[in-house]
What we know:
- The structure is a single chain.
- By secondary structure, the protein is an all-alpha fold.
- The chain contains 19 helices and four strands.
- The N and C termini lie far apart (90 Å).
Amino acid sequence: MPAFPDFSYKRDMLPLFLVFFLGFCYSLTIAPSLTWTHFSADAGDLISAAATGGVAHPTGYPLYLIIARGFQLLPLGDIAFRTNLLSAVCTLITAFLLYKYLVHQLNDHSLAPLISFLAALAYGLAPFVWGQALVTEVYALHGLLMMLCVYTWSLEGPKIGEWVRGLVFGIAATNHLTAVIMFPLLALQAEGKIFASTSVFFRRSLGVACGLSLYLSLPIRASFDPPINWGNASTLGGFFWLVGGQLYRSYLFSLSWANIFQRLQSFAGLLLNQYTGFGALIGIYGLISSPSRRVLIPSIWMGIFFLLFAISYNSYDSLVYLLPVWLAFAVWLAYGLQDILSLFSNRYILQISICALLFVAALFRIPSLFSSVDVSKDFQARNFVGRTVQVIPRDSLVFVDGNEQIFSLWYAQYTLHQRLDMAIIAEGLLPYKWYQESIRHNYAYLNVPAVGTLQLSDLLAANPDRPICYIMHDQPIICVSDP
């Protein structure tokens, strides 16, 4: 019998090819500037907060703002494109780490590199994952940090200090607070006993506290009165309002059981869209086959609890919280493929042929995905900004409703420094004291009445000589008076 080819030497080649291939796909489809596609309505807020040293919408996202600012300094394209690039890089690193993680976990299988490559490729080409790699949002970085949490939790023995495990979990929560879903894993032992010892748990908790301390950068940023200063975190009340996400508390567990059940039913369709029917079957089989406990516990925990959070969170973009679910499913996909290939343990050529066919199938699927993910020619947001700054009369009071419109005009004014003469007023934020202070700071030429609850009519009455314009979601710009 001919000796089976040794694929161990290809472990350095396959991840490089994986990153290059996915990077090529992302480079063809990435948004060239500001975009609202793929649930990126918050892009203008995040870009501008990073660029101006500001504080983004709850929960502040301190880690994302710091890293995004670094990308904004790159000499490539406009500042929005550079921030979009952060998401692409984060997704590429996630796929790379997923490959490394699976190779380590499947090291007793001779085809571990090929299996890991196919699973990581499937993750990187999943439509939702691909879409998030092309736009400015926090979720590509969130996926990377979830991968790091799973990786560090699963490492054995002295390869990593216990406080470092906790540090990774804590830092993950400073990008997106839903990372606390992973915190209970720190009470478990990755090997040996089920529960971690008291000393181990203490060291991990210390690491978590160190990671979470990054939130303390928000009061520092807020103290400089940046143009975007959600909650004014320089005050204690503002800090807890921001980090606690009180603005979105009403979205939690407010869906009826009927709506939750309907969302759970639609999840099957979403799964098929990400991994196809064949991939879904392999992943489900991998979940119930024989992965090690170091793999099973964190992947099931991440998959189930992020799924429960996503289907119970009452917002139009709750699908973004499924990204860790797709990551967990990629792990199960690898184990399912391993078990299927093991059925042909004595037929090496057949095993390699199956892997080759799966890779070809992935290639053939790419053209059909382009139309759903491609934002390389999406100029809707940029056109909106260009049209608005042209038609709004000078020195106008501009009342805006809709996250896409508000944040895009913040991007135009605070980041691109366009039309500094017009006062952009987010109607929905007028009742908040911190926002009233921001208006006074950003538009010193406005008369802002010191009333208990500031309303639109108060601003109109206090500034009678200014033109007034209204911009509402999916509605034409309305200017009701001229200078």
